Write a sequence for this structure.
């Protein structure tokens, strides 16, 4: 099946003001005795696509859960549209931000369409059942991820990559202007990784939305993200435009292995250094 690399269909429009922001204020995250992030302050704006990168255990998942309001920081706080997350009612917050976790566990049999429709729950209000409009939105999201033919399939019959794309369709169906995705490219082959990132990039552009996603492929991040947040696992973080943050020097230091940037015309790629370059390429800590 051929998947589109960008979206031409109309995504559901958000009804709230266009300059919504997510802001971390003096955020400190800890795991047991380790400090994952120390006194971090930054504001994320509409139209931005952020890749959150860093070595295993650096706190990427913890950070997304904290930004979503599902985990408490050791210090500091998170604001959404100028109000602390603690002030938001659960239903309003669910219409404002959506979180896709690393793993999805299906407890029972259901059609793919019904699984995606579950994400419309925050918009149902007092209604007991989804409307025709909700179903139309769900089908558009399936189409966006190349899953139209899967609508009637049992979710338990899907492969890991197919289930991952269903999870992406569901989180888009929630129609929240802030999207937090934890490892959205896991289980996907390269073709589907590129197609899904193209779809997500178009989703951001179409509605002045904000996207944060964790990713281990720095080159896909450099291609699709506008900004990067690089965690070093020791409390430090670098935030800024993606090509200013995902550099050989900063990435080598964060991942503890030397990387070098190669160029082929207009294309660039970060690759592991080797030979004599590998022995001396990791810059000393400043």
């Amino acid at each position: 099946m051929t998947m589109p690399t960008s979206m031409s269909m109309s995504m559901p429009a958000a009804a709230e003001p266009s300059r919504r922001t997510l802001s971390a204020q003096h955020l400190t995250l800890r795991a047991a005795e380790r400090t994952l992030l120390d006194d971090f302050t930054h504001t994320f704006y509409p139209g931005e696509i952020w890749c959150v990168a860093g070595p295993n255990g650096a706190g990427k998942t913890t950070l997304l859960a904290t930004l979503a309001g599902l985990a408490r920081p050791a210090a500091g706080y998170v604001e959404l549209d100028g109000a602390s997350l603690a002030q938001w009612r659960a239903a309003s917050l669910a219409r404002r931000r959506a979180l896709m976790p690393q793993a999805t566990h299906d407890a029972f049999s259901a059609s793919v369409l019904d699984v995606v429709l579950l994400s419309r729950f925050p918009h149902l209000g007092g209604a007991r059942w989804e409307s025709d409009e909700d179903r139309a939105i769900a089908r558009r999201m399936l189409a966006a991820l190349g899953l139209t033919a899967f609508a009637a399939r049992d979710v338990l019959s899907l492969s890991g990559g197919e289930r991952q794309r269903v999870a992406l369709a569901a989180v888009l169906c929630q129609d929240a202007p802030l999207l937090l995705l934890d490892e959205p490219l896991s289980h996907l082959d390269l073709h589907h990784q590129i197609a899904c990132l193209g779809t997500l990039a178009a989703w951001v552009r179409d509605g002045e939305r904000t996207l944060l996603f964790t990713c281990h492929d720095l080159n896909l991040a450099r291609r699709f993200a506008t900004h990067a947040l690089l965690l070093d696992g020791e409390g430090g973080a670098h935030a800024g435009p993606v090509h200013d943050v995902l550099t050989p020097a900063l990435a080598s230091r964060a991942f503890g292995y030397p990387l070098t940037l190669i160029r082929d015309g207009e294309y660039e790629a970060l690759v592991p250094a080797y030979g004599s370059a590998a022995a001396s390429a990791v810059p000393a800590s400043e």
